Protein backbone atom coordinates (compact mmCIF):
# COMPACT_ATOMS: atom_id res chain seq x y z
CA UNK A 1 0.00 0.00 0.00
CA UNK A 2 2.86 2.36 0.77
CA UNK A 3 4.10 5.04 -1.57
CA UNK A 4 7.75 4.62 -0.58
CA UNK A 5 10.14 1.66 -0.45
CA UNK A 6 10.71 2.44 3.23
CA UNK A 7 6.99 2.17 3.89
CA UNK A 8 6.24 0.49 7.21
CA UNK A 9 3.56 0.08 9.86
CA UNK A 10 3.22 2.55 12.71
CA UNK A 11 4.12 1.85 16.33
CA UNK A 12 1.39 3.42 18.44
CA UNK A 13 1.29 3.19 22.24
CA UNK A 14 -1.64 3.83 24.55
CA UNK A 15 -0.68 4.74 28.10
CA UNK A 16 -2.49 5.87 31.21
CA UNK A 17 -3.48 4.96 34.74
CA UNK A 18 -5.25 1.71 35.50
CA UNK A 19 -8.86 1.84 34.21
CA UNK A 20 -8.32 4.89 31.99
CA UNK A 21 -10.05 3.09 29.10
CA UNK A 22 -7.02 2.31 26.99
CA UNK A 23 -7.72 -1.39 26.59
CA UNK A 24 -11.15 -0.68 25.05
CA UNK A 25 -9.77 2.12 22.90
CA UNK A 26 -6.83 0.06 21.63
CA UNK A 27 -9.04 -2.75 20.39
CA UNK A 28 -11.40 -0.24 18.74
CA UNK A 29 -8.44 1.37 17.00
CA UNK A 30 -7.34 -1.95 15.55
CA UNK A 31 -10.88 -2.63 14.27
CA UNK A 32 -10.98 0.84 12.75
CA UNK A 33 -7.66 0.44 10.92
CA UNK A 34 -8.56 -3.03 9.69
CA UNK A 35 -11.87 -1.64 8.43
CA UNK A 36 -9.91 0.81 6.30
CA UNK A 37 -7.89 -2.05 4.84
CA UNK A 38 -4.73 -1.54 6.91
CA UNK A 39 -2.88 -4.41 8.49
CA UNK A 40 -3.00 -3.83 12.27
CA UNK A 41 -2.49 -5.84 15.47
CA UNK A 42 -3.21 -5.22 19.12
CA UNK A 43 -0.33 -6.04 21.45
CA UNK A 44 -0.43 -5.75 25.18
CA UNK A 45 2.30 -5.40 27.80
CA UNK A 46 2.79 -7.22 30.01
CA UNK A 47 2.38 -10.07 27.53
CA UNK A 48 1.25 -12.69 30.05
CA UNK A 49 1.51 -15.57 27.57
CA UNK A 50 5.31 -15.98 27.75
CA UNK A 51 7.13 -17.61 30.67
CA UNK A 52 8.43 -14.22 31.82
CA UNK A 53 4.88 -12.92 31.44
CA UNK A 54 3.57 -15.66 33.70
CA UNK A 55 6.00 -14.62 36.44
CA UNK A 56 4.75 -11.03 36.07
CA UNK A 57 1.13 -12.13 36.15
CA UNK A 58 1.58 -14.08 39.35
CA UNK A 59 3.35 -11.08 40.93
CA UNK A 60 0.51 -8.73 39.90
CA UNK A 61 -2.15 -10.95 41.39
CA UNK A 62 -0.15 -11.13 44.65
CA UNK A 63 0.50 -14.83 44.26
CA UNK A 64 4.23 -14.20 44.42
CA UNK A 65 6.54 -11.59 45.93
CA UNK A 66 9.50 -10.09 44.08
CA UNK A 67 12.04 -7.39 44.86
CA UNK A 68 11.07 -4.08 43.13
CA UNK A 69 14.19 -4.10 40.93
CA UNK A 70 13.62 -7.71 39.92
CA UNK A 71 10.04 -7.17 38.76
CA UNK A 72 11.12 -4.03 36.93
CA UNK A 73 13.67 -6.02 34.95
CA UNK A 74 11.13 -8.75 34.22
CA UNK A 75 8.71 -6.21 32.74
CA UNK A 76 11.57 -4.94 30.60
CA UNK A 77 12.65 -8.47 29.59
CA UNK A 78 9.05 -9.09 28.55
CA UNK A 79 9.37 -6.22 26.05
CA UNK A 80 12.82 -7.34 24.87
CA UNK A 81 11.55 -10.83 24.09
CA UNK A 82 9.06 -9.26 21.65
CA UNK A 83 11.44 -6.72 20.14
CA UNK A 84 12.58 -8.55 17.03
CA UNK A 85 9.06 -9.69 16.12
CA UNK A 86 7.94 -6.09 16.61
CA UNK A 87 10.51 -4.86 14.11
CA UNK A 88 9.63 -7.59 11.62
CA UNK A 89 5.92 -6.76 11.80
CA UNK A 90 6.49 -3.02 11.39
CA UNK A 91 8.83 -3.47 8.44
CA UNK A 92 6.31 -5.86 6.91
CA UNK A 93 3.76 -3.04 6.95
CA UNK A 94 1.70 -4.00 9.99
CA UNK A 95 0.71 -1.23 12.39
CA UNK A 96 0.99 -2.24 16.04
CA UNK A 97 -1.28 -0.74 18.66
CA UNK A 98 0.33 -1.32 22.04
CA UNK A 99 -1.66 -1.36 25.26
CA UNK A 100 1.20 -0.11 27.55
CA UNK A 101 4.95 -0.07 26.84
CA UNK A 102 8.20 1.21 28.39
CA UNK A 103 6.45 4.29 29.78
CA UNK A 104 4.38 2.09 32.11
CA UNK A 105 7.58 0.33 33.04
CA UNK A 106 9.26 3.54 34.15
CA UNK A 107 6.20 5.26 35.66
CA UNK A 108 5.09 2.37 37.87
CA UNK A 109 8.57 1.50 39.18
CA UNK A 110 9.53 5.13 39.66
CA UNK A 111 6.30 5.59 41.67
CA UNK A 112 7.58 2.92 44.05
CA UNK A 113 10.70 4.99 44.64
CA UNK A 114 13.21 3.49 42.20
CA UNK A 115 15.49 6.03 40.47
CA UNK A 116 14.16 7.54 37.24
CA UNK A 117 17.37 6.99 35.24
CA UNK A 118 17.81 3.48 36.64
CA UNK A 119 14.28 2.65 35.50
CA UNK A 120 14.92 3.94 31.97
CA UNK A 121 18.22 2.11 31.45
CA UNK A 122 16.95 -1.39 30.53
CA UNK A 123 14.55 0.13 27.98
CA UNK A 124 17.37 1.73 25.97
CA UNK A 125 17.49 0.16 22.50
CA UNK A 126 13.84 -0.87 22.28
CA UNK A 127 11.92 0.67 19.38
CA UNK A 128 10.62 4.20 19.90
CA UNK A 129 6.89 4.56 19.29
CA UNK A 130 5.79 6.92 16.54
CA UNK A 131 3.01 8.11 18.79
CA UNK A 132 2.16 7.88 22.49
CA UNK A 133 -1.49 8.48 23.34
CA UNK A 134 -1.84 9.27 27.03
CA UNK A 135 -5.42 8.82 28.22
CA UNK A 136 -5.57 11.42 30.94
CA UNK A 137 -7.92 10.79 33.86
CA UNK A 138 -7.68 11.39 37.61
CA UNK A 139 -7.24 8.29 39.78
CA UNK A 140 -10.53 9.14 41.52
CA UNK A 141 -12.47 9.19 38.24
CA UNK A 142 -10.73 6.02 37.07
CA UNK A 143 -11.63 4.20 40.28
CA UNK A 144 -15.32 5.13 39.81
CA UNK A 145 -15.36 3.08 36.61
CA UNK A 146 -16.56 -0.09 38.19
CA UNK A 147 -13.95 0.24 40.92
CA UNK A 148 -10.47 -1.13 41.00
CA UNK A 149 -9.92 -4.86 41.03
CA UNK A 150 -7.58 -6.56 43.44
CA UNK A 151 -4.39 -6.28 41.42
CA UNK A 152 -1.33 -4.96 43.19
CA UNK A 153 -1.20 -1.37 41.88
CA UNK A 154 -4.90 -0.51 41.89
CA UNK A 155 -4.95 2.04 44.74
CA UNK A 156 -5.67 5.75 44.41
CA UNK A 157 -2.67 7.00 46.36
CA UNK A 158 -0.26 4.90 44.32
CA UNK A 159 -1.94 5.85 41.03
CA UNK A 160 -1.42 9.53 41.93
CA UNK A 161 2.31 8.88 42.14
CA UNK A 162 2.24 7.01 38.83
CA UNK A 163 0.54 10.02 37.19
CA UNK A 164 3.34 12.30 38.41
CA UNK A 165 6.00 9.94 37.07
CA UNK A 166 4.29 9.74 33.67
CA UNK A 167 4.64 13.54 33.46
CA UNK A 168 8.43 13.19 33.55
CA UNK A 169 8.29 11.12 30.35
CA UNK A 170 6.24 13.46 28.13
CA UNK A 171 8.01 14.36 24.88
CA UNK A 172 7.13 15.44 21.34
CA UNK A 173 5.72 11.99 20.46
CA UNK A 174 3.03 12.34 23.14
CA UNK A 175 -0.56 13.48 22.75
CA UNK A 176 -2.50 14.00 25.95
CA UNK A 177 -6.12 12.92 25.53
CA UNK A 178 -8.84 14.00 27.94
CA UNK A 179 -10.20 10.59 28.93
CA UNK A 180 -13.12 11.89 31.02
CA UNK A 181 -15.28 12.43 27.95
CA UNK A 182 -17.76 9.98 26.43
CA UNK A 183 -16.06 6.93 24.95
CA UNK A 184 -17.25 7.68 21.40
CA UNK A 185 -15.73 11.18 21.46
CA UNK A 186 -12.39 9.82 22.57
CA UNK A 187 -12.61 7.11 19.92
CA UNK A 188 -13.14 9.70 17.14
CA UNK A 189 -10.22 11.82 18.29
CA UNK A 190 -7.89 8.83 18.49
CA UNK A 191 -8.91 7.64 15.02
CA UNK A 192 -7.87 10.93 13.43
CA UNK A 193 -4.54 11.13 15.21
CA UNK A 194 -3.64 7.50 14.53
CA UNK A 195 -4.62 7.55 10.86
CA UNK A 196 -2.39 10.56 10.37
CA UNK A 197 0.48 8.70 12.02
CA UNK A 198 -0.11 5.55 9.92
CA UNK A 199 0.11 7.68 6.76
CA UNK A 200 3.37 9.29 7.89
CA UNK A 201 4.90 5.85 8.44
CA UNK A 202 3.69 4.64 5.04
CA UNK A 203 5.70 7.51 3.61
CA UNK A 204 8.88 6.14 5.14
CA UNK A 205 9.35 7.79 8.53
CA UNK A 206 12.49 6.07 9.93
CA UNK A 207 12.37 3.85 13.03
CA UNK A 208 14.39 4.98 16.05
CA UNK A 209 15.34 3.64 19.46
CA UNK A 210 14.57 4.63 23.04
CA UNK A 211 15.22 7.09 24.41
CA UNK A 212 15.76 9.56 21.57
P1 LIG B 1 -2.53 -4.25 32.74
O1 LIG B 1 -3.60 -4.05 33.78
O2 LIG B 1 -2.57 -3.25 31.63
O3 LIG B 1 -2.43 -5.69 32.26
O4 LIG B 1 -1.13 -3.94 33.47
C1 LIG B 1 -0.80 -4.62 34.61
C2 LIG B 1 -0.16 -3.73 35.63
O5 LIG B 1 1.27 -3.72 35.46
C3 LIG B 1 -0.59 -2.28 35.60
O6 LIG B 1 -0.90 -1.89 36.94
C4 LIG B 1 0.62 -1.53 35.11
C5 LIG B 1 1.77 -2.41 35.53
N1 LIG B 1 2.97 -2.35 34.68
C6 LIG B 1 4.21 -2.11 35.26
O7 LIG B 1 4.31 -1.90 36.45
N2 LIG B 1 5.33 -2.12 34.45
C7 LIG B 1 5.26 -2.35 33.11
O8 LIG B 1 6.30 -2.35 32.42
C8 LIG B 1 3.96 -2.60 32.53
C9 LIG B 1 3.84 -2.88 31.06
C10 LIG B 1 2.84 -2.59 33.34
UniProtKB/TrEMBL annotation:
Keyword field: ATP-binding, Kinase, Nucleotide biosynthesis, Nucleotide-binding, Transferase
EC number(s) reported in the record: 2.7.4.9
Pathway listed: Pyrimidine metabolism; dTTP biosynthesis
Domain of life: Eukaryota
Residue stretches making up the Thymidylate kinase-like domain: 14-189
Family, similarity comment: Belongs to the thymidylate kinase family.
Name of the protein this chain belongs to: dTMP kinase
Shown residues within the full chain: 47 to 258 of 259
Amino acid sequence: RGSSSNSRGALVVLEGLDRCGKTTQSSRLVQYLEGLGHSAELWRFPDRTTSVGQMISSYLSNESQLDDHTIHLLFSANRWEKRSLMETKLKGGTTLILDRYSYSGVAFSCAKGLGFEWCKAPEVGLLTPDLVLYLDISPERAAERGGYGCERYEQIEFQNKVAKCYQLLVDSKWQIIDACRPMEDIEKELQEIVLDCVKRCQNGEPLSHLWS
